[in-house]
Queue: 4 jobs
Job 1
Amino acid sequence: MSEETSQAAAKRVLSGMRPTGKLHLGNYMGALKNWVALQNETNADGSPKYECYFFIADWHALTTDYADTGALRQNVREVALDFLAAGLDSKRSTIFLQSEVPAHAELAMLLGMITPLSWLERVPTYKDQQEQLKEKDLATYGFLGYPVMMSADILVYQTDFVPVGLDQAAHVEITREIARRFNHIYGVEEHEVLPEPKVLLTPSPKLPGTDGRKMSKSYGNTILLSDPEPEIRAKLKTMVTDPARVRRTDVGNPDVCPVFDLHKVFSTGETQQTVRAGCTTAGIGCIQCKGWLADAVVAELAPIQEKRRHFESHPEEVDAVLDAGAVRANARAEATMRQVRAAVGLARR
């Protein structure tokens, strides 16, 4: 099979992350590790199964943090480093910065023209985030229109699949609705201008933070991909466990212990069996259990941190990846926009 035919057969995948600084284990296990697996997946003939686009959503960062952008540039750099350290490869994926592809904004503006206000107001995260972030003024056009920008991000590449965990699958639905409405209003007979993307379900294990709640920077309970080993061990030592296990001699229940939730993600089956047996008989203490977990987490992150150190020492390589990604992303997005402009009636010829 020729390279051109292989490329045509590959299904296009797109996803992105907001630049909030260094990524943590929740970002890695919930998305980034899956992205690396997708870019590396091949067909029987060795051709890539997916044509992958992964971006840093710096415009999206402004929807909630528009008033404080002092750290934005550095945050973009930190996310780019973690992308590459985790295994995203510019030879297999297009890795780019959202704001360096103006077509995202152009398509968002056009989609905004046809998106009913009621669709945006009913998005669950609209009111939820306003409640959670009461200290910020989120009564803005940009925040309300976040789903339109998200839809443009996806549709501008005529994306086949959006990789998400089961709990995020519903978020893609508004993109499908907007694409459907656009095609109904402007579609040509031969084909849909903006194909409706499908959800590509990927593993998204439960990953609690050190306080037992969902791992999140807003809770201050994260373990960063770049945390040095002593810091990882120190953080895990403070992690909450089965609340019923007060004394060393008390038996525990791994099924209600956040530490064991992490064991299920990072430790071997043998270690998990040993932990379960020791915990339910009080044969081991929580400190020993956390030490074994730390061993597993440190082993998982060691190669990632080694690659990160390389890219930290060679910033020109990071810039080259983002520059090349912007060129490829712009070319692909412009191909879509030529069709969009013609369909809307904006093309002069």
Note: The beta strands are 11-17, 50-56, 93-97, 161-164, 198-201.
Job 2
Amino acid sequence: MNQEQSRLMTPQDAFFKLIKLALGTCDDENVLLDESGWKTVYDMACKQALAGIVIDGVERLPMEQKPSYDVLMPWIGLVAKLEERNKRMNQLTVMVCDKFEDVGMGAVVLKGQGNSIFYPRPFHRTPGDIDLWMMVGRRQVVDYVRQLFPKMEAVYHHMDFPVIKDTGIELHFTPSWMNCWSTNRRLQKYFSKMKQSQWQHKVELPGRIGSVAVPTLELNRVYLLVHIYRHLFDEGVGLRQLMDYFFVLKQGFTADERTETVSMLKELRMTRFAAAVMYVLQEVFGLEEQYFLLPPSEEYGRKLLREIMLAGNFGKYDERISRSQNESVFHRFCRKVFRNGDFMADYPSEVIWSPLFKMWHYVWRLKNGYLPRKS
């Protein structure tokens, strides 16, 4: 091995450093990679839905350290598409919210474009679906959707509203849920208490195309962590979701606000997971100590980071998961239950209650007519 090769970084170390450079939490602008290493970093950025962020880090490198034309050109093309997609998503989000307000059904934008307002370059965040927390009750939302889509099913927390061909829209009755009966009851009580104040919290989306209601920082410090927790148990979670949480924490909070948030996390039995997330936010994004909700846990954080890197965005790249297009409901139930067994030692409450919740959920949907309607 020659001297130049010995100085090369591992792709993962370079990936994390480029993220920190993009976020301004690292000042060392040296990333040494060969062609193969850069291709791996690009793949990581795509799998974690952070291509737009990582290229911001690449921009800070000295010219001689930047990737080759063959790596950079497809990357630039992808980011250009991200920017256009974000502009369209902002327009669609405002349009959909305005439409619901016109029919007397106010909505709060969860995650997505509402989170992009915290990013230094909002159009470089990879957009997803439009998730709306409806301010009216579940039955009113179901009846409204089924006027247009009579066979549409509903699950515990939301139902799809496919009125735009290439953009998913989810109408939420509640932002999220937990498998454990007692912690879910506490969570739903918390959401109910916070609901009205969210509707009054409106912000201008990037591009000055209109304003929408989004969750307050107080709610997001709890809700986004629960959202990450949910995805960990449901196929997988990626770094994009943790970056959203990073930017929420970076908005700051008082000592009393931290105490309130941690108190709620204790009620939800999520302090261990929160400590694991703090480790990932520090390790990958360079989150400073003043923004920690809890001291980071290296033990649980390393496990979480390993899962994130293996699974990719929403677990789409997890080679440990064997999926089939013709998978039956029973097979999917068994696959998810067995997968969650890996988390038993760390998060026993959610794992133990998972199969019980899934069985109750099926019966509840059947009883209330929320299963897919037959022709």
Note: Strands lie at 107-110, 130-134, 158-160, 169-172, 202-204, 211-213.
Job 3
Amino acid sequence: MIDSRPWMLLLFAVVFAVLFYLLSPILMPFAAGALLAYLGNPLVHRLERLGLPRNWAVGLTFFTLLTGVAVALAFLIPMLWKQFLYVEAKLPTLLRWFNRDATPWLEGHLHVEINRIDMDLVTEWLSGYWSDAGAVAGNVLTRVAASSLSILSVLGMVGLVPVVTFYLLLDWDDLLQRIRDLLPRHVEPRVSQLAAECDEVLAAFLRGQLMVMVALGVIYFLGLQIVGLRLALIIGMAAGLGSIIPYFGFAIGIVAATVAAVIQFGSFQDVLKVWAVFGIGQAIEGWILQPYLVGDRIGLHPVAVIFAIMAGGQLFGFVGMLLALPVAAIIMVLLRHGHTLYQQSRLYQGEVEASRIITEDHDANG
């Protein structure tokens, strides 16, 4: 008789993938809520160990998350708005610097010909932008009324995130236990072991890397603010967020900060101060943040990180990008186990050697 279990599992996986693809436009609040619940659940456990009931621990954790997000937005939005206005005012100066100084230097060192930016075309584009902005402002009420359903839909999706987060936090442990109870008894120990390893990797990557990103963003922002750079917040945030890919955040941050320092200060001494800020940030990341907050448990190569984000965005849009790295981390754990099984198989070792290894593993595990 043919064993139908592999075909049942394959059918289940195909159905799940199809449903995930079809429902991806509405999955954003649920994916974001699940991610926030996963990040907040350790804090709930700590509060429970201090003697708080589960409901009180979840309520306090949820209040802390909401308060943190609200304070961050109240602090960041006004500063970001001012810096965006500054960028807009300095854009012509930046373009002139690129034509007059940067382009000849690049041509001399790279031995290539670079087309100059047409300042008249940029001025015409900016004028048209402001004209369009005025027309949009005149018709804004009409457009809002015409698109009220889509606006309400977006607001509803965003409003669902805290609701989903709260209820998932409340029932997180029960959900995990129910999933464990549904597993066939003969595979439950192995699946629980794999799940524990996946959780360790996800905790190291999501919680650890998130703290590293925030810490680096704050370090770069404060350092550039001390130096006096007007775009300290924008560049610091970009460098911190970009640090999810090793050295990518550092690269975009130091290049953007160098250009901004040249435009604002015009002296090499101030550029050296900017470089010193990023050098200190890299030293703190390498010696303190990465070893203590992330460690060496992730196993994701930088190229794998880039591919996972791009593949997730290509297949499932924003939801895919949100879930790409957790899924990639889980796949890495499964691949490591698959690699171990392959090395113990008859295909790799030969029939006699594989039998000996399996017997030794069986004896060692009792």
Note: The two ends are 32 Å apart (CA to CA).
Job 4
Amino acid sequence: MDPVGEVASRLEARAASYVKDNRLPGAALGVVHGDKLAWWAGVGFADIARRQAPERTTLYRIASITKTFTGTAIMRLRDAGKLRLDDPIGVHVPEVDHLEGVTIARLLSHESGLQSEPPGTDWRRARYEGLVERNLERAEEIQTRVPPSSQHKYSNMGVQLLGEVVSRVSGMPYVDYVRSQIFEPLGMSGTAFEPLSDVLRKRCATGYTGRFVSDDLEPSAIAPTVWAEGGLWSCVDDLGRWLSYQFSDDPTLREMHRPRHLVDVGWTQAFGLAWYGMRRGEQIWIMHSGALHGFRSNVCFDPVSRVGAITLINGVGDASMLSMDLAEIARTAVMQSAPAIEPPAPAPVEYLPLLGIYFDHDLGTTRRVEWRDGRLAIIAPDLPAWTPTLRPTEDPNVFLIDPGFRESGENAVFTRLPDGRVESIFIAAGTWIRLLPAR
């Protein structure tokens, strides 16, 4: 049994208590471990009048969690060489080329200084212009409010512009791009923008207002239609696939999760690229929340334990708090469980001559090139935390140092003696001589 299954009763109790204590209509919840949805629960009601319970396929507005999909679309276009993260937004959307210092990267990490909302927004009156073309007709009203990179400043307007970048750079409508390039490959058939199909519409939960002086919960006002910055509906099943995808061996995903900009002086929250990190105790959770009329949502995960949680509420509550509670219960179970023992992957024959001990005479220290966990790695006995892995290139003697270290992106180059034996390795900025075995 997956270790998450062993704490299912604790997860169910925490979920039910949270919904009851906060007088919420209901919630759909899930915990992901690795590549599977290890636990899910529907608590309370997806629709009170019909006494309909939440299912793992019940659709909820996930609002700003949509930004993680928009960010992923931008990064894929970056990886395809169609844009750069340091491009000013005006390079791709000339209507706003007056925005000095507003780059794609700064928009992704909410440090551009751009105004929070499109012109004329009033969320309390459900007044919001979600059509980017209409906002661009009044582009002179779109301005930075604080200097770029001077502080964290969350901006729906900025991510709306990023959606327009996706459309213009890819040559297809934003909605079509994310559907064909993200949803369909990941099997996320229940994730969609409005207008929803009749089939999906029947699966939607009813959103409710928060309680004030009575436990009576009224259906919420209909939210304005939005797209790249917060328009998606989704479900526990599909978001489970989205979290599992975050655990895949993709350096671009690691780049997105990595913090770029601190939100507060207490170092409790930091934004990466379309994701943010939240510190609670000694644990940092990568996450994103969403809030739109009648719905609150959150997904959070820990890349190390490969555990994540999903909270979808059809009311007003702190979804991030419940997600972290569930994820921590599951993470503790996973970290305390006995590790699975698998046969090690054999070292490729062509790598065998590279393995061994390398020495620096001046420092008097060594480096070991090893095959471990299916990767070529460099081990430093004097630096236990320094364990860069090497990615092959077209040249069998040249490797690229993976992200996460000072030397990342630099080359590791092996040189050979005339007889073919490896003589040394050049690591980013220095040569280490191989200690050849005595004959």
Note: DSSP finds eleven helices and 18 strands in the chain.
